[in-house]
Specification:
Blueprint: H1 5-17, E1 39-51, E2 56-67, E3 73-78, E4 82-88, E5 96-98, E6 107-112, E7 119-125, E8 133-136, E9 148-151, E10 171-179, E11 185-188, E12 201-211, E13 217-220, E14 223-228, E15 231-235, H2 237-246, H3 250-261, E16 269-273, E17 282-283, E18 288-291, H4 304-311, E19 319-321, H5 327-346, H6 348-368, H7 394-410, H8 412-426, E20 429-431, H9 433-443, H10 447-452, H11 455-460, H12 474-487, H13 502-512, H14 518-528, H15 536-548, H16 555-564, H17 568-579, H18 585-595, H19 601-611
């Protein structure tokens, strides 16, 4: 264990003396045991050692805290941590206890403090089943040369590898010193190194306060290649050049976002390409986006996800949902900004396609939520439930539709001014839905507009309000010509598909689905080789259609896809379709049993329920 206590004490005392006053009031978070209105963390100095042979992190968290006079304890969130020792400023141990474990919360760590306490130190090790850590063997990585570790904190998993106040409404700055095995490279959601350290010791610093779910770490055989002075790509060496080429629009995306919504608010924006088991398309960790390799299609066709995660630098990271009940505050705004960036880079017709597909996905998701209609509202009520229930497509697409509807009412210029004002007024803080509605009413919409636009129905009611409008798409209208020719049994290679994007093909698959037969899909596959595509989004749509129509020739490629992809968004529709049919259900169960070990806990949580695992 690395010992820097005297140095840390000096640094932390200096840090605490220059801190701004803690905010007056924190919202109650049903997914955190912390009581930040009594005592709250404000800064972290973290020293850690990563041990791959034991799949364990050994660490000490040195927390600077602020508390009201007379408060006798501070409460941290933990989940499966082994707490070894807790002490206060002067080095003397203090009384502490772990509370009873609760679903979706873990065990509260209650630490006794005094009126003079400025720092709390917690020495601990991570447990065997730490939900926020994924340890990969060399064979599970791209280069197969070294083990790999990455973290995933959203929604409440950071507490499984850091004792913290794990609520999105609580922010802290941090510095870290991390020891990793020699030859490996470490990255955090901070200012990151560019070169390997021979001794395996890496230092990090992030002066801009972030919520715990954005505290991130990755360790592996990683190299770096820059674009310019503030952006670049990290990846395994064998993936680096391919990833660097794929994301080459990143500097232009940053400039486009700044053009619309003001200066980039963080020091850097880099991308780390993770191994395939990463459960999300991307994770918006400040300064270092974690990305799935499934967006590397070889033609830059899926880089709208980069635009989405970049947009989180403003919506989500600069202003954060106060609790997971307000998740749409993060994702609705991010989807709105993403599409504005895409419009500037690729033009309005391309952005219209994304919105039109988003409308389709939203309507399907709402229809499929009939057993849980409460999850179709923007403002959620997740107390006693898994906060991952919020992580559906609905807050993204319904939130976007809501904001787009307001833009149509007030005009783009006024909408942009409003968004910039919101960021300026609430930078580096959290926001509830009610905070946003109050700001909206005070700064953009008058009372008549607020009522006529059904603002409260959009936010609090289930489903879609009567003034919801679908987006039309010129490029999809042109794609309908190819659908008509296909229905007339014209030669497949004569269809006007030259220059189509991924999204036109996905639209085409959806349109032909009612009439397509297995033999027709076989002919399409022979003509266009969809089953061998390198585009994961296209493959997902094609495989769902193939399973539905029992296009048996696609099954070997479906099996390979499920073995090598860990992204939940892509796995769920494929497994759902497999489980929906007699001709594929047993096959789906067999594949899941074999490949489950490759998936992250976040993906397993969803898929176990979907496929009925463990199999009885």
């Amino acid at each position: 264990m690395l010992q820097l206590r005297s140095l840390l004490l000096t640094a932390l005392v200096a840090f605490s003396s220059c801190q701004q006053p803690v905010k007056d009031y924190y919202m109650f978070d049903p997914h955190s045991a912390a009581r930040p209105n009594d005592a709250v963390t404000t800064h972290l100095e973290w020293e850690a050692e990563v041990r791959f042979e034991k799949k364990q992190i050994i660490a000490t968290a040195h927390w600077v805290i602020s508390h009201k006079p007379g408060v006798k304890e501070i409460i941290f969130d933990t989940d499966g941590l082994n707490i070894e020792r807790v002490w206060l400023d002067d080095g003397d141990s203090t009384n502490w206890r772990l509370g009873k474990e609760q679903a979706y919360i873990g065990s509260a760590l209650v630490v006794k403090i005094t009126d003079n306490t400025q720092m709390v130190h917690i020495r601990y090790t991570t447990g065997e089943e730490a939900k926020g850590l994924q340890w990969l063997e060399p064979g599970q990585t791209h280069d197969k040369s070294a083990p790999f570790l990455f973290t995933q904190g959203q929604a409440v998993l950071t507490r499984s590898w850091l004792p913290c106040q794990d609520s999105p409404g609580i922010r802290f700055s941090f510095a870290a010193r991390v020891q990793v095995p020699e030859g490996l490279f470490a990255i955090m959601s901070a200012v990151n190194p560019r070169q390997h350290e021979d001794n395996g010791i890496y230092r990090f610093k992030n002066d801009k306060a972030i919520p715990a779910y954005l505290f991130a770490l990755a360790v592996g055989n990683i190299s770096f290649k820059p674009y310019d002075g503030r952006s670049g790509v990290y990846a395994e060496p064998g993936m680096l050049q391919k990833a660097w080429w794929e994301f080459a629009e990143l500097p232009a995306m940053i400039r486009a976002a700044e053009q619309e919504f003001g200066p980039y608010p963080w020091d850097r924006y880099d991308v780390l390409v993770l191994p395939p088991s990463f459960p999300f398309g991307g994770m918006e960790n400040p300064m270092i986006m974690f990305a799935t390799p499934t967006i590397i299609a070889g033609d830059r066709s899926l880089t709208n996800l980069i635009a989405h995660e970049l947009s989180h630098s403003w919506s989500g990271n600069l202003i954060t949902n106060a609790t997971w009940n307000d998740f749409w505050i993060n994702e609705g705004f991010t989807t709105y900004i993403e599409r504005r960036i895409i419009e500037l880079i690729h033009g309005p017709e391309y952005a219209e396609m994304l919105q039109a597909l988003g409308n389709q996905d939203l309507e399907v998701a709402i229809a499929e939520s009939s057993h849980q209609p409460e999850l179709t509202a923007l403002k959620l009520a997740l107390e006693g439930k898994n906060p991952d229930d919020a992580l559906s497509i609905i807050p993204y697409q319904k939130g976007f539709a809501f904001l787009k509807m307001i833009e149509k009412e007030v005009g783009r210029s006024r909408m942009d001014s409003f968004i910039k004002a919101n960021y300026a007024a609430h930078a580096f803080s959290s926001m509830t839905t009610e905070d946003f509605l109050a700001f909206l009413r005070s700064n953009l919409l008058n009372d008549e507009q607020f009522e006529r636009l059904q603002i409260n129905n959009w936010v609090y009611a289930e489903g879609l309000p009567s003034n919801y409008q679908r987006q039309s798409s010129i490029r999809f209208s042109l794609a309908n010509e190819a659908v008509a020719l296909w229905e007339d049994d014209k030669p497949l290679l004569s269809l006007p598909t030259a220059g189509w994007s991924t999204y036109e093909w996905i639209y085409f698959f959806r349109k032909i689905e009612p009439k397509a037969s297995a033999s027709q899909l076989e002919a399409l596959d022979e003509a266009f080789e969809f089953s061998n595509s390198g585009n994961a989004e296209l493959l997902t749509a094609w495989f769902v259609l193939s399973i539905k129509k029992n296009h048996e020739a696609a099954y070997p490629q479906i099996e390979k896809f499920l073995q090598t992809v860990g992204r939940r968004k892509l796995l769920v529709p494929v497994y759902r379709e497999l489980m929906a049919h007699k001709h594929s259900g047993a096959m789906g169960l067999n594949w899941y049993s074999k490949f489950r070990v490759n998936y992250h806990q976040v993906s397993r949580n969803t898929l176990d329920v979907l496929v009925g695992y463990p199999i009885k």
